[in-house]
Amino acid sequence: MIPIISIVGKSDSGKTTLLEKLVRELKSRGFRVGTIKHDAHSFEIDHEGKDSWRHKKAGASISIISSAEKIGVVMDSDHDHTLSEIREKLIKDVDVILSEGYKREIHPKIEVYRREKRQEMLCGADDNLLAIAGNPETPPAGVPVFDLDDPVPICDFIQSRFLR
């Protein structure tokens, strides 16, 4: 089963920037990485008037646009899917999945935390908190803390725990 690790944190803490660094580093090591971004709001990835948009607007349950470089899928959803559901339905041929958000999910989490934001941490050790990227004053016991700006040790940790 493909492991899933969620990058969580408060708004504007640096989750996306960290995720980008982790993807680049893991890819440079030869790993195939999938990502899932949670959006609490509705979003639109297709554009009005385009053929694929028109297919969906006409009532297609799923619309796929394909080229030599990429494939895009827009499909109906009757609920907010869990990471496990998305993995099972849509993701194949990767070594690890990094998600952004999904703080309430059961999967292991790396919390991005910046002390200067003066916010409380989202997770505790009982929230399947794997590690912290940042500078907490008092991290939960037994939870390693990594430099937010250096993805190499974080990727070493991910690789040793999930990508043997």
Describe the protein's architecture and organization.
By secondary structure, the chain is α/β, with parallel strands linked by helices. It has a single domain, classed as P-loop containing nucleotide triphosphate hydrolases (Rossmann fold). It has four helices and eight strands, in the order βαβαββαββββα. Strands 2-5-1-6-7-8 form a six-stranded parallel beta sheet, with helices on both faces. Strands 3-4 form a two-stranded antiparallel sheet. Helix 1 crosses helix 4. The model has no long low-confidence stretch (mean pLDDT 90).
In short, what is this structure?
With 164 residues, the chain is of the alpha/beta class. The protein has a single domain (4-43, 79-162), classed as P-loop containing nucleotide triphosphate hydrolases (Rossmann fold, 3-Layer(aba) Sandwich).
Q: What is the spatial order of strands in the main beta sheet?
A: 2-5-1-6-7-8
> What overall form do the CA principal axes indicate?
globular
H/I helix tally: 4
The span between the termini is: 13 Å
CATH architectural name: 3-Layer(aba) Sandwich
Give the class-level CATH name. Answer: Alpha Beta
The topology string of helices and strands comes to: EHEHEEHEEEEH
Predict the CATH topology: Rossmann fold
Summarize model confidence as the mean pLDDT: 90
Q: How many strands in all?
A: 8
Q: Output the CATH homologous superfamily.
A: P-loop containing nucleotide triphosphate hydrolases
Stretches where pLDDT is under 50 for at least 5 consecutive residues are none
Portion in strands? 15-25%
